[in-house]
C-alpha cells in the first residue's frame, strides 16, 4: 500500500455530509491479510479516489475476544493525523464486518521487501529512522504507545517513504501513567516489557517503541534481527538474551553503529526516545527534519512500480477460498435482510463502534478556523474604532448656545438663516471663522432687538398712566384734547 493518497487532501469537492457505507465503494482487489481481517484496494464511487479498506469479521472478533482492540483502534485513529502514519478516512459497519478506510500505500510493507532480499543502505535506514521517529514523537505527544512496531506494520508509499500502521494493540496512557500488559511481538518487544511480565518493574512507557525501531533498523541493514528471540522463547531466556551484547558487522560505519547502540540500550532512561535526541546523533545531525516531515527528502530506495508490492496469492484466495467473499456481500446481505424482515428483527450493530468521516472533521475544523478569524477581525475592528483623541472645544460654548436659543425664541427668521448658514458651512467645509462672525452678527442684532423691546414696554406703561386733567375733569378727555 503506497502514496496513491495523501493525508493532506484539501479538495473541497470531497467534503460530504452523507454517512459513508459499503455501497459507496467499488472493490478492486485484495492486497493484505491479518489475524482477524483483510485489506483490499477500493475506489470511492463519487470521487474516484483510491483507498485501502481494512475489514474484520464481527463474529471472529467476538469469538476470540478481540472486538475491544478493533474498537480502540478506530477510536485512536480518528484522533490522529501525521504524514508518516496510515491515516483513517472513514469507518462504518454492517451485520457482518467492521470497516476502516485508510490511506492507500502501494509500496508494500517492509516485511515483503525483506523477504525479497532487498538490501537497504545505511542512508535508506537512516531516513526510515527519521520518518518513523517523527511519527513516534508525534504519538508520544498524543500519549499513545504503539507497542507493535515491526516490518509488517511499516508500509511504503510509491516514493519509498515509511508509514506506521496497525494500532490494534496500541494504548493511550493517562498523564504520568504506565502500561503494564505484555503486548506486542516478542522479537521486537523491549526488555522492560518482559521485566514487567516478571514483576521486576511496575510498568513501561513510550521508550518501548524506540527499542522496536532499533530492532527494525538493524534488521533492515543486516536482514536478520539483533537478538535470537522467537515467539516460543521463555521469558527468563529472553531477559538473558536481551542483556547480551549486540554484534555489529565491521563494515558498518561508526556513526550508524552509534545510532543503533543508543536505540538498543537496555535501560529505558539511556535510550533514544525523542526526535530531539535523534537529531543530536552524529549520523543524523546534518539532516533537516523539517524537510523530512514535508517529504522533500528523496528516499534512496523506491519500490517497484511495475507490479503491486504484495503477495499475488491473496487475490486468488479471496476469489476462490473465501466462504464469504467481499464482492458478493451486497447480494448476500440483501437476502439476509429480506429474511430478517419476515422473521427475526434486524441484527443489532456494535454500539461502541465509531462511525467516522474525516472529511466531516476537516469541514468542521475549517468552519472553526473561519469563526476564529471572524472573531479576531471583529476584535481588531472594535479596537481600532476606539476614540484616542478629542477635538478641541470652542471657547465660550455657553454664550453661543444662549445666542442660538434666543434666536429661536425671538427672531425665527434670523434663527432659520443662522441654521442654514451652519448647514451650508458644514457641507462646504468652510472655516470656523465665518461661522463665528455670523453668530456675532446675530448676537448684535439680538442685543438691538432686546433694547427695542425694553423701550416699547416702557412707553406702554407710561401711556396707560392717567393724566392729571383726566383726574380733575371727570371724563372730558375729548374736549381737553
UniProtKB/TrEMBL annotation:
<comment type="similarity">
    <text>Belongs to the protein kinase superfamily.</text>
</comment>
<dbReference type="InterPro" id="IPR011009">
    <property type="entry name" value="Kinase-like_dom_sf"/>
</dbReference>
<keyword id="KW-0067">ATP-binding</keyword>
<feature type="compositionally biased region" description="Polar residues">
    <location>
        <begin position="404"/>
        <end position="423"/>
    </location>
</feature>
<dbReference type="InterPro" id="IPR008271">
    <property type="entry name" value="Ser/Thr_kinase_AS"/>
</dbReference>
<dbReference type="GO" id="GO:0016301">
    <property type="term" value="F:kinase activity"/>
</dbReference>
<feature type="compositionally biased region" description="Gly residues">
    <location>
        <begin position="472"/>
        <end position="481"/>
    </location>
</feature>
<keyword id="KW-0547">Nucleotide-binding</keyword>
<dbReference type="InterPro" id="IPR000719">
    <property type="entry name" value="Prot_kinase_dom"/>
</dbReference>
<keyword id="KW-0808">Transferase</keyword>
<feature type="region of interest" description="Disordered">
    <location>
        <begin position="404"/>
        <end position="481"/>
    </location>
</feature>
<feature type="binding site">
    <location>
        <position position="54"/>
    </location>
    <ligand>
        <name>ATP</name>
    </ligand>
</feature>
<dbReference type="InterPro" id="IPR017441">
    <property type="entry name" value="Protein_kinase_ATP_BS"/>
</dbReference>
<keyword id="KW-0418">Kinase</keyword>
<feature type="coiled-coil region">
    <location>
        <begin position="357"/>
        <end position="384"/>
    </location>
</feature>
<feature type="compositionally biased region" description="Low complexity">
    <location>
        <begin position="427"/>
        <end position="441"/>
    </location>
</feature>
<dbReference type="Pfam" id="PF00069">
    <property type="entry name" value="Pkinase"/>
</dbReference>
<keyword id="KW-0723">Serine/threonine-protein kinase</keyword>
<protein>
    <submittedName>
        <fullName>Serine/threonine-protein kinase 32A</fullName>
    </submittedName>
</protein>
<keyword id="KW-0175">Coiled coil</keyword>
<feature type="compositionally biased region" description="Basic and acidic residues">
    <location>
        <begin position="448"/>
        <end position="463"/>
    </location>
</feature>
<feature type="domain" description="Protein kinase">
    <location>
        <begin position="25"/>
        <end position="284"/>
    </location>
</feature>
Amino acid at each position: 500500500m503506497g502514496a496513491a493518497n495523501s493525508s493532506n487532501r484539501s479538495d473541497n469537492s470531497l467534503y460530504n455530509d452523507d454517512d459513508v457505507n459499503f455501497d459507496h465503494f467499488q472493490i478492486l482487489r485484495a492486497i493484505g491479510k491479518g489475524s482477524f481481517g483483510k485489506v483490499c484496494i477500493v475506489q470511492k464511487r463519487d470521487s474516484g479516489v483510491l483507498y485501502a479498506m481494512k475489514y474484520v469479521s464481527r463474529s471472529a472478533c467476538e469469538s476470540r475476544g478481540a472486538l475491544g482492540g478493533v474498537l480502540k483502534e478506530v477510536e485512536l485513529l480518528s484522533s490522529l493525523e501525521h504524514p508518516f502514519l496510515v491515516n483513517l478516512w472513514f469507518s462504518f459497519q454492517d451485520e457482518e464486518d467492521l470497516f476502516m478506510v485508510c490511506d492507500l500505500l502501494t509500496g508494500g510493507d517492509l516485511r515483503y521487501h525483506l523477504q525479497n532480499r532487498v538490501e537497504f543502505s545505511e542512508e535508506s535506514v537512516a531516513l526510515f529512522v527519521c520518518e518513523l521517529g517523527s511519527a513516534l514523537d508525534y504519538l508520544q505527544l498524543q500519549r499513545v504507545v504503539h507497542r507493535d512496531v515491526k516490518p509488517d506494520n511499516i508500509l511504503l508509499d510509491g516514493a519509498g517513504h515509511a508509514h506506521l500502521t496497525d494500532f490494534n494493540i496500541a494504548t493511550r496512557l493517562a498523564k504520568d501513567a504506565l502500561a503494564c500488559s505484555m503486548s506486542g511481538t516478542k522479537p521486537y518487544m523491549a526488555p522492560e516489557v518482559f521485566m514487567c511480565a516478571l514483576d521486576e518493574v511496575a510498568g513501561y512507557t513510550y521508550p518501548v517503541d524506540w527499542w522496536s525501531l532499533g530492532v527494525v533498523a538493524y534488521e533492515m541493514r543486516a536482514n536478520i534481527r539483533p537478538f535470537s528471540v522467537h515467539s516460543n522463547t521463555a521469558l527468563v531466556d529472553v531477559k538473558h538474551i536481551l542483556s547480551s551484547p549486540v554484534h555489529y558487522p565491521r563494515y558498518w560505519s561508526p556513526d550508524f553503529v552509534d545510532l543503533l547502540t543508543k536505540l538498543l540500550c537496555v535501560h529505558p532512561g539511556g535510550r533514544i526516545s525523542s526526535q530531539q535526541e535523534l537529531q543530536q546523533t552524529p549520523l543524523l545531525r546534518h539532516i533537516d527534519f523539517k524537510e523530512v516531515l514535508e517529504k522533500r527528502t528523496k528516499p534512496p530506495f523506491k519500490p517497484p512500480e511495475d507490479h503491486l508490492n504484495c503477495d499475488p496469492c491473496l487475490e486468488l484466495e479471496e476469489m476462490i477460498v473465501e466462504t464469504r467473499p467481499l464482492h458478493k456481500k451486497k447480494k448476500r446481505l440483501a437476502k439476509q435482510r429480506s429474511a430478517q424482515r419476515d422473521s427475526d428483527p434486524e441484527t443489532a450493530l456494535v454500539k461502541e463502534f465509531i462511525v467516522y468521516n474525516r472529511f466531516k472533521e476537516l469541514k468542521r475544523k475549517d468552519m472553526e478556523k473561519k469563526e476564529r478569524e471572524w472573531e479576531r477581525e471583529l476584535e481588531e475592528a472594535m479596537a481600532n474604532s476606539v476614540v484616542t483623541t478629542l477635538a478641541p472645544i470652542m471657547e465660550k460654548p455657553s454664550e453661543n448656545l444662549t445666542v442660538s436659543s434666543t434666536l429661536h425664541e425671538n427672531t425665527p427668521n434670523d434663527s432659520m438663516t443662522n441654521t442654514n448658514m451652519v448647514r451650508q458651512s458644514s457641507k462646504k467645509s468652510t472655516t470656523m471663522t465665518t461661522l463665528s462672525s455670523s453668530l456675532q452678527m446675530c448676537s448684535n442684532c439680538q442685543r438691538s432687538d432686546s433694547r427695542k423691546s425694553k423701550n416699547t414696554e416702557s412707553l406702554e406703561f407710561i401711556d396707560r398712566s392717567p393724566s392729571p386733567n383726566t383726574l380733575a375733569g371727570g371724563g372730558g378727555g375729548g374736549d381737553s384734547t
